């Protein structure tokens, strides 16, 4: 989580370095009678001394040393010595942070600096925790009158807004309403279903404008006796710009845009269907240029992930319309949804029975309002058939995680598999995993969610060395099968050497406890790689790459442990690979890329065209002889990156080389393709070549819905249920994991609060009230559709202190509650004072977990440490003011303007953080 750079705090920091303090430093020099020792930020510390302090800290010496604090006023309060020691420690910490940003520094030295910085933060926080002052109180965290969660939990929605359908005026004819437009809205209410047919032909000769269609639809809904209604939503047109000499110049205002808005009351659920449907294919792809200027240091990437939807035939459904200004559109494309920059890539895509779309992605920053704990996490994204995001679920890994495999069960469960480094709270740990000397290497994990995206269980089962789970599938009885790769032996299954493929199975026992059924390794002494897995009744078929050869194996699972019954070697793929495996009735379809024009035992129905071509092959699921293969490509190197099979249709997606069948001309620098192959006949039944932002498109996964397109797509409405609900669980709405903790202290009583699997804001509020001994007032409010929790003391005497949980298991940061205290205040002579009548309370805001691992982290650390230094200066200023009532006048007279170069340095920090944080 990134704190915005506090420019006022850094301003004070630079003022101190330049001898321009806002009162305290100049004050001590200007008073006729010295009432306080000279502060260390008043220029007494030379640049050489500051540099020596940083060097000493990097060599392992202490950051805080009261004995080194210099007081030039005999008899001064011991508070000053402690304040000066604390300030010097913070100043040294700031110097260490600045060192990590130096150019030409090695990774090893940067790691050493970061380690010293983290040690310094811990040391200073420990010092503050034990600090006993006569006239002040200082805490590590913040001091505020209330604590509010930044984590918002959405309440159930009552509105659904389509994409814009018309510009200029809602009275204009809407292109999407032209032609045969009819569908049914099934309204579920009070356990009954009311079907409301919508057929725009019933409007007669009226102009099919948004206003007229809305009136017609509302008449039909009212006549059916339901409460749902339709209205319009206006989006104001923004500035219209053009490029002149490389600069954006405003030349007017774009027209307003209008959308349909469905207003659905509580107690009603809408479901949409159309009488005529067509096939649809969803494509996840990477677009944009990851490094436009060829310099990694500039961080100018335009890369982004997209979700595309194609309609694949127009026999019963009119062809899709290109929207005004829609870039890189090709015939058949229904929409292209661009995801945020935090989505690094999409690994897998699946279609649920209700037509919704699940995507598995790796994310590197806050996504859909959810903070992540580490550098990279796994996100499960659910979209409806119209491309609207329904929910996002993050895994919650403390360090790094990658999602590699995705599967859906017949009863709506979702399984996700991949690799994880660092802590994964709530997961059942295997007997080995990467611990000890192997700590920091990746382990395999598999997580299963219910249909609402609520986590049911997670297993982390790995070897000592690095391993990952790359494929996952459900059996008919609910067994979860996992295929992966390991660099050493798995528990109960020794490796063959090099990297091996492994198989695992998990199933709940009679008590609901998840059991590991078996673990088995497959492979040669070389580098093997899993490449696909399908469940066929009580059998399982797996694909792997072994020494460059594509190999399929079939196992009988009826006896519990897998028994090998058949093997089929497709031959040397000549630099290619297998990218997909699917079941098609009693057959297996395998897809990939190869330079080999004659794969073993397969008759060629469409010839290899040259270079590396994509291929799709069909053979018996028992891996007996025979089968057919069709190649797809041109003279260049073409790669299949994904396979989808549905209703006997075989689809492949991938990256184009040069020419393609029916599309010889490149559209961009790197194009993608989507093709439907008739393997038996050797024909291409449908294909599209397309590109993306900056002329680059790289499909990563595809999914097919043979009845997924209809007139609903033109209007921006989903097939199936209009899903307006979401889980209230905190573990579903954030990266919080079961077992994450934080502490709550009131008086001398400290309680640990632990997040449960089904935790909600309401249950958390109860826990906080109880942990505080009912000294905390906890309320839940709703703003802009998001619920949040607020904590306040019940009386003037109470001080509530929030503390972070243990490393990697802290719940406080994910809740968005800062470490520190919550207390009441009162105003006396225009000054804010603690309501408990005791000494002034100051919060440093020096949070746990600060580090310098990246530019964003470093700028964040600079902001936090600079702010903490400003707090210490304020403590000094207040101490002086208490000793000399006229000090405020002297301070005002002594203060000076901040030089422009210091303001520029602050602005540079702010600009850097803005660029890095988006």
Account of the 3D structure:
This protein is an alpha+beta fold and 918 residues long. Helices cover 19% and strands 38% of the residues. It has 13 helices and 53 strands. It has a 5-stranded mixed beta sheet with strand order 2-50-49-45-46, with helices on one face. The chain has a 5-stranded mixed beta sheet with strand order 21-22-24-25-23, with no helix packed on it. The two termini are 13 Å apart. Residues 1-31 and 887-899 have low confidence and may be disordered.
Topology record:
Blueprint: H1 7-18, H2 24-30, H3 47-58, H4 78-100, H5 107-129, E1 136-139, E2 142-144, E3 147-148, E4 153-154, E5 159-161, E6 166-167, E7 182-189, E8 192-199, H6 210-223, E9 229-235, E10 239-244, E11 247-253, E12 257-263, E13 268-273, E14 278-287, E15 304-311, E16 333-338, E17 343-351, E18 357-363, E19 377-383, E20 389-394, E21 400-408, E22 414-421, E23 428-429, E24 443-449, E25 455-460, E26 467-474, E27 480-486, E28 500-508, E29 514-522, E30 528-536, E31 539-546, E32 549-556, E33 563-572, E34 577-584, E35 587-594, E36 603-606, E37 613-620, E38 628-632, E39 639-646, E40 649-655, E41 672-678, E42 683-690, E43 697-709, H7 711-715, E44 720-721, H8 730-733, E45 741-746, E46 749-754, H9 761-771, E47 776-783, E48 786-793, E49 799-804, H10 812-815, E50 820-823, E51 825-828, E52 831-834, E53 840-843, H11 855-883, H12 887-894, H13 900-917
Which structural traits does this protein have?
disordered N terminus, 53 strands, 38% strand, five-stranded mixed sheet, 918 residues, alpha+beta, globular, 13 helices
